Amino acid sequence: MNQGHAPAGKRPFRKEYPQGEARLDRARAVEELKRFLDIAVREMGLEIKYEILPPAADKDQAGEAEVTVKFVGPDQDFLLERSGELLLALEHVAHRWLRLDPRLHDHVRFDCGDYRSVRLEELKLSARVAAQRVRETGQAFRFNPMSSRERRIIHLELNGAPGVRTISEGSGDRRQLVIYPATAKK
């Protein structure tokens, strides 16, 4: 039963572009997200509503999503338990549903109760504080393991910051971001 999905192996929201270039078909992504979320919310029995927001007016901000889905309702605390685990899992499944090129994952984001925007600000503040500590002490600072998306936020926040450089080390779930003094060798 196909129900409007692209044939197996086809990626409806990803066109084959040269390496380094990928574009999101926003209109089709929004249409498919609605189908996915209607099914997911109903089948999970969640008392929650969603809204798909247009892109932010200020696209100059690094990492700004083209499609943001915001959830609100009695079950929003359930989505945010254990550091937003269910919210992030739902987002991951949506990426799979859309068959997004991994380079486009940052373009489709889910948020609930401003969890993502608050977390973004926490990460940026942590990055600045840790960088200042590295500059003052000359000692490297190692963050706890975090997702590639969160590491990327810190890398971008400290890109070009005086006196420090950032590197991701480790593998898999244990991958960490480390801030080194700019002159130190790894």
Structural summary, described in words:
By secondary structure, this protein is an alpha+beta fold. The protein folds into 2 domains: 26-113, 2-Layer Sandwich (GMP Synthetase, Chain A, domain 3); 119-181, 2-Layer Sandwich (Ribosomal Protein S8, Chain: A, domain 1). It has 4 helices and 6 strands. The protein has helices spanning 26-44, 76-98, 115-137, 148-158; strands spanning 49-53, 67-72, 108-112, 141-142, 164-169, 176-181. A 3-stranded mixed β-sheet has the order 1-2-3. Strands 4-6-5 form a 3-stranded antiparallel β-sheet. α2 (76-98) links the parallel β2 (67-72) and β3 (108-112). α1 packs across α2 (76-98) and α3 crosses α4. It is elongated. The model is unreliable at 1-12 and 57-63 (pLDDT under 50).
